[in-house]
Amino acid sequence: MMKKLAIALGAVVVLVLGVAGGTFAWAKSRTSAQFSKKFEVHQVDFPIPFPLGEQELAQLRTERAGPPDADGGVADPLAGVDLEALAKERAIARGKHLVQSRYACTECHGENFGGGTMIDAPPIGTFKGKNLTAGQGGVVAKYTASDWDRMVRHGVKPDGTATVMPSMDYLEMSDRELSDVVSYLRSLPPVDNTVPEVVFGPVGTMLIATGQIRLTAETAPHQSPHAVEPPAENSPAFGKHLASVCVGCHNAEFSGGPIVGGDPSWPPALNLTPHADGLAGWTFDDFKRAMLEGKRKNGQDLRLPMSTMKTYAQHLTDAEFKAMWGYFQSLPAKPTQKK
Ligand code: HEC
Ligand code: HEC
User: Fold this and answer.
1) Residue 165 Cα, ligand 1 centroid: separation in angstroms?
2) CA dihedral 57, 91, 169, 276 (to 10 degrees)
């Protein structure tokens, strides 16, 4: 989230340093090498949508079980139920929730997924999020589960080359979550819109060459297996799973500090561990209020980029808030990172 701003400001830094001609030629050849390189990514497969799980089936049987008939026989409670349609309906609902509460694809692909803007600043480049609907100009009609895996969880396009789409927030996505997102996308009305290819400006070329625009393809593990399902909602692991989208700013230990690769005008991220610098003395309600209203415990407004999190937090369930809070409380108290 908010990588647009991060990249835009990195660009200013480079402009101040000045882009000398020779350097630029070097950057250009290095950048084109990065984008012609093919990445070896494992082949995965998963169903889209996921079928109903054992637990869901058991619950349906219990809900629908009728009394024995006159001869004492018991009818199959699932007879006549369209299990496939039900599985699809549930997958779409879960996918919608994931997109609205956590994954923020719409920031760059548009509210209707017909295409949007990641960066439109010619010196850096024009990076448009593609049309992910079934309409004209949509690019995912032929996508297999493996193509979705590579693009979203590895930052690698179906042809094996790197994309500028930042996938770091999605590395922890399980197969089922990705499948749910795809089911949701497939349920959306088609939008006719052809989105132009990514174009790099001179500054963007420099940023890629110097590693300030970090390509997920260069850093993601391409052979490690993914979890099939997310951790159970009531497990401590679920809180950690939810917090994986906060790491980019609050850091892997959640001790806060300056945001690496962020816009220099951003304040440091705050400490989310139970340390005196952090959330010591906070209650669950203080945490929830901070997330929903964008306010600190003392009532002060949270600034950009944290202020944008409200939009997503509104869609979190109470169980999700509790899991995240429980996870932050379980962390070792750490002082805020200074650098
Ligand atoms: C920060 C901006 C951003 C976010 C967030 C984002 N994307 Fe993208 N996405 C892009 C850009 C830019 C492209 C075009 C990339 C290219 O051509 O290299 C793209 C392209 C794609 C493509 C098409 C690649 C092709 O075959 O041409 C898919 C599929 C995709 N994104 C899926 C997703 C999904 C699913 C999410 C949410 C889980 C998401 N994106 C979130 C910026 C983003
Ligand atoms: C794009 C960067 C970014 C992301 C992603 C992000 N945060 Fe933050 N967060 C910040 C910044 C910066 C601040 C400090 C804002 C300020 O000082 O006004 C902050 C502040 C907070 C605070 C207030 C703490 C206090 O002491 O007042 C909480 C709580 C918080 N974040 C929770 C989260 C959670 C939970 C997530 C993930 C779901 C998350 N943040 C994701 C950047 C981010």
Assistant:
1) 5
2) -60
Q: How far apart (Å, rounded) are the C-alpha atoms in residues 119 and 209?
A: 18
* Tens-digit pLDDT profile for residues 226-277: 999 999 998 889 999 999 989 888 998 999 999 876 777 889 999 999 999 9
CA distances, 257 to each of 239, 248, 251, 301 (Å): 21, 11, 8, 18
What is the rounded distance in angstroms from the CA atom of residue 338 to the CA atom of residue 10?
20
Q: Which amino acid is at 104?
A: A
Half-sphere exposure of 20 (CA within 13 A, CB side): 4
Dump pLDDT digits (tens) for 28-63: 888 888 888 999 999 999 999 999 999 999 999 999
Ligand 1 is surrounded, with C-beta below 6 A, by 3, 103-105, 107-109, 118, 127, 129-130, 132, 139-140, 151-152, 157-158, 163-166, 170, 181, 198
Q: Are 262 and 214 in contact (CB under 8 A)?
A: no
Gyration radius of the chain over CA positions: 23
Q: Six-digit token pair at 133?
A: 């609907």
Is residue 161 within 8 Å of 37, Cβ to Cβ?
yes
Cis status, amide bond into 49, omega within 30 of 0:
yes
CB 107 within 8 A of CB 7: no
* 34 contacts 208 by C-beta, under 8 angstroms: yes
Half-sphere exposure of 224 (CA within 13 A, CB side): 11
Please check whether residue 191 is in contact with residue 115, taking contact to mean a CB–CB distance below 8 angstroms: yes
Query: Which tokens is 320 given?
Result: 């999700």
Ligand 1 atom 24 nearest Cα: 157
